[in-house]
Amino acid sequence: MKSIAELCKQIKGIYNIDGNANTRITGISSDSRDIEPGYLFVCFAGVHTDGSKYAAQAVEKGAVAILTAKHLPLPQKAVQIMVPDVHHAVEDMVPYFYDYPGKKMRMIGVTGTNGKTTTSHIIAHILRAAGHHVGVLGTIHALIDDEELPIHNTTPDVIELQRFLALMYDRGMTHVVMEVSSHALALNRVAGIEYDTAVFTNLTQDHLDFHKTFENYLAAKAKLFQSLSREEHVKDNKTAIVNIDDA
């Protein structure tokens, strides 16, 4: 649990709290259907819907705070945290809420147009054979040792991803192997994670509906490798592995 004041101190930018800043948060979700008493509800504005439409429903279900880009007509009991950019605020707050699990385990990120799933599972098998407890985050599922959990995106959003990582850490995982999509890198869904090893499989013309140009696609992939040399690291022994058969 963290207080609203503690969470907001992590935001790199301006924010305004309407309500009791000492209110304690027990969980975070952007899906009103998942809200439980004590939760912070995040109002993401997407292409097809706006989370603020479900804020009242979230409060009815027990949300004690709302993260929003605008003040909403809600019961006074709900604390409203207003920020210019909800996505950026979430990137700052959520990893802190879960105590940065991606900095406590050895994190292996696999990126590339093809081969991510196969490569991730081969690495996981090698690590398990060496006696490690391994979590896997991939296209179709998440694995905690041999337990399978459903997953919605190749790399989930920041909230779901940090929740998965916190669960893996609590279950004793020492290593996590992740498929890291170009979308996740471009949208910074991997915020708060410190990677130890970055793996590049290959790069072909793909996902240009999202990235627009091949150069943008390449730049997104490169972010995983640039992250290995950031100054705020808490772990040593970084490794980049590149498939030199790919031109």
Task: Give a structural overview.
The chain has 247 residues and is an alpha/beta fold. It folds into two domains: 2-94, Udp-n-acetylmuramoylalanyl-d-glutamate--2,6- Diaminopimelate Ligase, Chain: A, domain 1 (3-Layer(aba) Sandwich); 101-242, UDP-N-acetylmuramoyl-L-alanine:D-glutamate ligase (3-Layer(aba) Sandwich). The chain is built from eight helices and 14 strands. The protein has helices at 4-8, 55-60, 86-97, 116-129, 158-170, 182-186, 208-211, 214-226; strands spanning 2-3, 16-18, 24-25, 27-29, 39-42, 65-68, 79-82, 106-111, 134-137, 141-144, 147-150, 175-179, 197-200, 239-242. Strands 11-10-9-12-8-13-14 form a seven-stranded mixed β-sheet, sandwiched between helices. Strands 2-7-6-5-4 form a five-stranded mixed β-sheet. Strand 10 (141-144) and strand 11 form a beta hairpin. The radius of gyration is 19 Å and the shape is globular. It starts with a strand and ends in a 5-residue tail after the last strand.
User: What is the chain-wise order of helices and strands?
Assistant: EHEEEEHEEHEHEEEHEHEHHE
Content of β-strand: 15-25%
Strand order of the largest sheet: 11-10-9-12-8-13-14
What would CATH call the architecture of the largest domain? 3-Layer(aba) Sandwich
* pLDDT < 50 runs, ≥5 residues: none
**Gross geometry:** globular
Q: Let me know the average pLDDT.
A: 91
CA radius of gyration:
19 Å
Tell me the count of domains: 2
The helix/strand class is alpha/beta
CATH domain fold name of the largest domain: UDP-N-acetylmuramoyl-L-alanine:D-glutamate ligase
N→C terminal distance? 48 Å
The CATH class of the largest domain: Alpha Beta
In which range does the helix fraction lie?
Answer: 25-40%
**Total helical segments:** 8
